[in-house]
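User: Could you check the structure of this?
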Amino acid sequence: MLDDKARYYVLLMAGLLSTGMLLAIQPYSVTSPWHIYDHPARSYLEAATHRDSVTVARHASAPEAVQWALKTSQTQPESLSVWAHEATAWAGHQLGDTTDVFLGTRRYQCTLVLRFVGVGAGAKIQQAHSDCLGPR
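Assistant: Sure, the predicted structure tokens are below.
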């Protein structure tokens, strides 16, 4: 009977030790506050891949942003499609209601910078720039 209790105590201690180790070595992760711009950015880029000027204009607040998207869809459709599906915001800079959001993908080493006016899902793109994507 003592052996049965000892076995359960050993199993309980091993379980507690394993749980403690998992909690101690788990990777530290923080959700970026810039991820609220992922969806509006991808929607804008997705509309551009389809060369849907009406939807691109709905996501933009300036004609330059519409022109950039449509020109990029003509010159680099494959790259734009990758950005439309994988773009993730990793940094940003906010000043008033204007926010510059830096986006990247796993496939490309360059950065796409979108200037948003407004916050979150209702934000509209005022300007787009990238050294490796879009017209130069």
